[in-house]
Fold:
Amino acid sequence: MNNGRNAKDTLDCVYTMQIIVKKRLRYSRPYLIIFTVIVSVFFLSKCMNPEKEKQKESDAVTTQGDTVTFADFAGSAACVNCHKDIYKTHLNTAHFRTSAEASGTTILGNFHKGKNSYSFGDNVVVAMEKRDSGYYQVEYVDGFEKRARRIDITVGSGTMGQSTLSWQNDHLFQMPITYFSAANEWSNSPGFPNRAVFNRVITSRCLECHSTFVETISPPGKEPEQYDRTKFIYGVDCEKCHGAAAEHVRFQTAHPDDTTGKFILNPGTFTRQQKLDLCALCHGGRLQKTKPSFQYIPGKNLWDYFLVDTLPPHPEFIDVHGNQYGLLRASKCFKMSDMTCNSCHDVHRNEKGKTALFSQRCMSCHSDVSALGGAMHRKLGGQVKINCVDCHMPLKPSRAISVFLPGEKVPTAAQIRSHFIK
Ligand code: HEC
Ligand code: HEC
Ligand code: HEC
Ligand code: HEC
Ligand code: HEC
Ligand code: HEC
Ligand code: HEC
Structure:
């Protein structure tokens, strides 16, 4: 059963932050003042920082205009002819698969009778059912169908789990039941109360992290937003990190002999902070936005779009879910080198579970592990090189992603790699 404390804990969850955001009057005056002060302090500190000059210089890499519309995107299928290898490996990444139009192939979880339901106590059951017009979550009260909502969009590659969304006119709503991979079970959706709730509306921030673009049709600042469902680019795809690329595709197609890329962003040429900002857009924890979603363009300063802490909070207070940037920033590795996320991750490939490969990347800086001393390393001898990760970046339970599995009274937490390296 869900108790009061748990409901409060789960309110902390990243899933529900948009609700908290919504309740506050965004862009209100006191907020703007605090924001201006923080930004000024930050800029003042930057004035004393040589990094500032570098930052300015590579602002020039931003070739795109300031606002992006659906027409500026080409879609990753347009990249395959010229960037075949990257295109192919990227299809297997969690980024690419993090959202999709719902279908028999994208929806996870068991729809077979006996395995297809989640019970909220004695009389309320939600069943996952395939019907003629698609896949549904259906609420039954005392055995009678109360409502059925079609699953239209999947969110989550299934590494940890998958939530689903349903269109109601131009609004999107999250479904009450989520698939939880570790247990191969249906659970109540993270952050949801322990009853069948179908009215949790999806704001643009959720989609900003889990998709490449969706065109918002409601006026700026109005929440919950309405979207144009025909102008939706699913997955964290090429153009999320490289900028909208229709112009690049047009140019390169028209100039096949030109071997330099035009009208495209390459994060490889960014400053360290610009690289980190790109990943922190979605891996930087709960950020309070100061501009509408989908306006940030890679290469821009994240703090022009969100309130960003200049100093990392204590790692004990950072949840392992969704804030790899916060945890990494607190680590000695990060502070004493020019490390970025790309020091260890090749985002074009799915490298999940390749521990030996990650350990090699550790050793690109810690080349002489045996000389590091310490009883533990000595005891392991040559073995130490195979897996730095489980000792120094252990899996930790997430406070934000914890769900109730069928019949269980204690919530089960997702286990996520800690990026506080110690
Ligand atoms: C008609 C061929 C063509 C198509 C289609 C194409 N590109 Fe390119 N792209 C190129 C060429 C040529 C270059 C320059 C050589 C290189 O870096 O590979 C390039 C370079 C790039 C670069 C590196 C830019 C740099 O400054 O180093 C990125 C990133 C990129 N393309 C992304 C994309 C994405 C994303 C798509 C699909 C939306 C795409 N390209 C579609 C031909 C193409
Ligand atoms: C638009 C938001 C967004 C951006 C930008 C982004 N990520 Fe992600 N990333 C996600 C989401 C969402 C997931 C979870 C995908 C899933 O499993 O459904 C994820 C998952 C990952 C994973 C786990 C992959 C796995 O196999 O489980 C890694 C590693 C990662 N991101 C690294 C990066 C790095 C490095 C950058 C910056 C270059 C970056 N991400 C930029 C949203 C983003
Ligand atoms: C600030 C960015 C952000 C927002 C907002 C956000 N997520 Fe996520 N979400 C992530 C990242 C990053 C991951 C994976 C890595 C992690 O857990 O640290 C993730 C993981 C997930 C997963 C598990 C995917 C898997 O299988 O690994 C689901 C499901 C999910 N999110 C659903 C949602 C839904 C639904 C919303 C909105 C109601 C939402 N998230 C809002 C960034 C975000
Ligand atoms: C999560 C962010 C992200 C996504 C998604 C992404 N890239 Fe990249 N890409 C990067 C980063 C970061 C670099 C720079 C790597 C470096 O230099 O360390 C890069 C570099 C490149 C380059 C430059 C040459 C090279 O091989 O490094 C090309 C071309 C490219 N990406 C194409 C693509 C295409 C095509 C897709 C989609 C199929 C894609 N990228 C998806 C982040 C991303
Ligand atoms: C970009 C270079 C770089 C990479 C990659 C790197 N580190 Fe480090 N790491 C450092 C530096 C610099 C320090 C601080 C000096 C030292 O202790 O050697 C450090 C410190 C450490 C420490 C001591 C932390 C403390 O609080 O005392 C550990 C443990 C560590 N690294 C483990 C790892 C592991 C495990 C990996 C791979 C997952 C890794 N490092 C990858 C540069 C790096
Ligand atoms: C020192 C190396 C290192 C750096 C730097 C690093 N990571 Fe990781 N990351 C790892 C390792 C190792 C894993 C675990 C991979 C596995 O076991 O599959 C991981 C896993 C992840 C995951 C999946 C977490 C999970 O348990 O599902 C995400 C998301 C992620 N990293 C994002 C990032 C982001 C964003 C950055 C930059 C802020 C970053 N990483 C920087 C080494 C690193
Ligand atoms: C079985 C667990 C284990 C493995 C595997 C392991 N370490 Fe360690 N490491 C430790 C412990 C425990 C310490 C603390 C010092 C000690 O051994 O007493 C440590 C210390 C360190 C330090 C800090 C040393 C110092 O003098 O401050 C670094 C850096 C480090 N490890 C890097 C690595 C790298 C890189 C790898 C993989 C090539 C690795 N470790 C593999 C357990 C491990």
Summary: Residues 76, 79, 83, 86-87, 90, 95, 236-238, 240-242, 266-268, 342, 347-348 surround heme C (ligand 4) (CB under 6 Å). The chain has one domain: 4-360+389-417. The chain is about 25% helix and 20% strand.
